[in-house]
Amino acid sequence: MLHGGCLCGAIRYTTDGVPYHESICHCSICRRASGAPFVAWFSVPRQSLSLVSGAPGWFRSSPAAERGFCARCGTALFFRSSAHPDEIDITTASLDDPALVPPRDEIYTETRIAWLATLPRLPSFAAAREQAAPPRPPTPA
Questions:
Q1: pTM for this one?
Q2: Tens digit of pLDDT for each residue in 7-60?
Q3: Host H or E run for residue 44
Q4: What is the DSSP letter of 95?
Q5: 29 backbone dihedrals φ, ψ, rounded to 5°
Q6: Integer Cα distance of 52 and 58 in angstroms
Q7: What is the dotted CATH code of the domain comprising 2-113?
């Protein structure tokens, strides 16, 4: 059983479905809908998803698909497509323990943002970066 929900706690869900299509999606629609450089998703049979509390708002993001989100805090939660009426996709990061469903592949890599390749070379911090660090001038484009 997997448990998850939105940031503010208004929507809580469970699924007893076995995850499949554990993917990182780089499509431009996922990026725009989430405000993030990519979205991690997994699929389960639609009937295995149970809403424990709250109800998502739905937005038609393309003629064949809609996205479920918390209308209170904006958390992206679900994706459903008319091409696959028996399944629902769930944002991996909305799980209480996202480590339980690691990605197995990446999709729409032809539209992946090029600077994602630089991430392994960037400085990293275990928490927030030091507040005393002076701001750096922007890098010329």
A1: 0.88
A2: 999 999 999 999 999 999 999 999 999 999 999 999 999 999 999 999 999 999
A3: strand 39-45
A4: B
A5: -70, -45
A6: 17
A7: 2.170.150.70
